[in-house]
Amino acid sequence: MVRRIDRDQQRFDKIIKGKVRQQLRKYINHGEMIGRKGRETVSIPVPNIEIPHFQHGEKGSGGVGQGEGEVGQPIGRGKGEGDGPGQAGNERGQHIREVELTLEELADMLGEALELPRIEPKGEDALTSQKDRYTSIRPTGPDSLRHFKRTYKRALRRMIATNNYDPKDPFIVPTKDDERFRSWKTVTEPHTNAAVIYMMDVSGSMTDVQKEIVRTEAFWIDTWLKRQYDGIERRYIVHDAVAHEVDEDTFYRIRESGGTRISSAYRAADHIIKRDFPPSQWNIYCFQFSDGDNWGEDNSDCIENLKQNLFPICNLFCYGQVRSPYGSGDFIKELRKVEEEFDNLILSEIDDKEAIYGSIKTFLGTGK
Amino acid sequence: MVVTTYRPLPKELSDIQQEMEQHALDYGLDFFKTIFEVLDYEELSMFAAYGGFPVRYPHWRFGAQYDELMKGYSYGLQKIYEMVINTDPCYAYLLSANDITDQKLVIAHVYGHCDFFKNNAWFSQTNRKMLDQMANHATRMNRHIDNHGYEVVETFIDTCLSLESLIDPYSPHIRRTQKTETRAETKKRTDEESESTGGRFPAKYYMDRYINPEEVLEEEASQKRQKARELSDQMKFPKERMRDVLYFLIQYAPLEDWQRDVLTIIHDEACYFAPQGQTKIMNEGWASFWHSTIMTRHGLTDEGLINYADHHSGTMATSPNRLNPYKLGIELLKDIEERWNKGQFGPEYENCTDMYQKEHWDQDLGLGREKIFEVRRIHNDITFIDTFLTPEFCYKQKMFSFAYNDSNKTYEIQSREFQQIKQQLLNSLSNHGRPVIYVQDANYKNRGELYLEHEYLGVELKLDYAQDTLVNLHTIWKRPVNIETVVDDRPTILSYDGKKHSTNSKEKN
């Protein structure tokens, strides 16, 4: 039977999720989520869920308390915690509600809000992959896979059958023959593979604010793509004058400085793709973020590299240029020159945090 | 059938319950039959979320409340030990996880509440069959949901709840307004009045100043003006300002029948719960007084002592920025009992200036017990504090008043002076700490606008909430709505016309 309260609670749950949806832009634009990555759910503070009343504000308010203290001594901020002062401990204080959401739910909301199309995998859409599933039982195997319940059940059966079982002294000792082990079957599943390569400029002209914007955007793009593909592989590249492949954690934390040579990142990306992701089998996405302040002579090198190696094999090549107080912002002009030729090249200029939301839509709105 | 989870008390508890009940009766407590049930925390939270009532209409805020209670419990921030509802018979729910000493304490505490519900004057008008009433409300609400859809009704409930505190908590006890005249009656009366006004008599011109003397005409004209003024006062609607805004809306707002019914349900339930808000300090104080009396004299075993002391002191804990109603209530009752036992009251005592004599004043009157029973019968929190709070008590209890300092956004200790503390306490308690708001005019500017007035007592309204509330008020009144209040120390009218908000300083009359 459904309890009355469950129904009311579910309704409440729906309402707060609706609130999150309304304010999604705020959550997307601020990088609060990133630290929580890796957990299954994220907690999001949702203020103002309560019903408004005519009620007293702080101005002119006060109350009566008990305890030591001199006149003029502060007794704590009024807002936020527990019962509000001035109400003789009766009125409920203001609570910030936290709603628990999975990242998938958030990704769906994002998709809905930005009207992102489902991504259609290119090429052979029914690639198969093999997966092991522990679904069967067999009489041999390593101890770590021993199925205790089955083992003891068999032992009990044997002891009863051989009249060795005494219910008053219920000892069960399995023998080798009684042991049973979990076992796997290898199943083949249709699978769409996607490889995503994130490139970030970490040179001196990229300030912490810019990096923060890049990370926030990369996080949401990643969350969305994860939702779209069963198996998604990610690689991370950071570069200044030279490029390094780094792990995800480093990508989200690193601080660097130095000059800028974008082509180094492209070479690294090309290298990774050749090494790990044969383009015939993978949907490949590249997301590059920079303030566009490249070392001048490097630009032609970059374009050449892109035309030769990356454009031909990528589903999408997305370049996001973050506005920086120091960078020249010239690089995007170079790409604009070839924009017409390649319909998988997408450009976006990100002025500030508020622009992240729109930029995500620019990148992912094509549905490729 | 209403209480679906009903499980009789296990033998061990039912023995304790009978023992505690007997103690309570021996001390002269007088209560309705009290039915105890043991619930686990989930069930108890569920009941608590519904205000103690197992059957109520569906609404998300009950779910929100439940969510909060369960979370608070799992994080170890709070715990409900019991819950009692004011009905006849009384229902009391005990937490199954309480240990045996807790159960004793809680049962004794419950009998205190039950006695209070039955005997305190402020509860005398509450519906003791509220279980049935709540279930009826649920049925009516569900019918509206069937007819109009869940979300439509839910949204309207939200709107009504936004106004639920705008009731008159004294309305069951006082008749405030005369019967309102119907429109037909007004017309008949004003027609008659307008005909009766005189004028010049016909007269030849040379006789005119004798037949129609100037002064008399003047006088008549002035009377006529006076009548007209009175008449326009009668057109003012409502004639006197009305405290129960919600009731006013039920009567006069242009609502559909089902909406009027929803608003009526919200109004009736708010009125039912109002006395609990008016007597929080007394009610909790009274229940605590009895659990501590019964437990310390009869209920304690050696092994239960520590648990009792722990639980009791937890309940009595004080904090600087929040007054504990349990603590204030029990201490004040104890103080009254002692004073009336020793005769520390009346003019002779009040006027005594010898501090030593005053402190050791003891006439051995033994009137204390009788006195506190009288107190629990007739007082609410405000009259209780107003009558019995003394400077000695404030000093002993280390009480102080605090105030919000706008410059550093902090609450600060303001004073330890008796008069200030008392005044602040009474202010905080007035109308349960909520602003007092009246319907001043329902035909404001002669355009059917609603004009409310906030009775400003030094604390300003929270502006953003006030604006949101005006929007809800507009949903019901369907014409522009206004509230007169004080913003930044200036009399101000906040208005909402259905599209936009405006804030105007009140022009001087």
UniProtKB/TrEMBL annotation, chain A:
Residues 60-70 have a biased composition (Gly residues). Residues 52-92 are annotated as: Disordered. Pfam families: DUF444 (PF04285). It comes from Gimesia algae. This is DUF444 family protein. It comes from the Bacteria.
UniProtKB/TrEMBL annotation, chain B:
Transmembrane segments: none annotated. InterPro entries: Spore_V_R, SpoVR-like_C, SpoVR_N. Residues 178-191 have a biased composition (Basic and acidic residues). Residues 435-486 form the SpoVR-like C-terminal domain. Residues 11-433 form the SpoVR protein-like N-terminal domain. Residues 175-200 are annotated as: Disordered. This is SpoVR family protein.
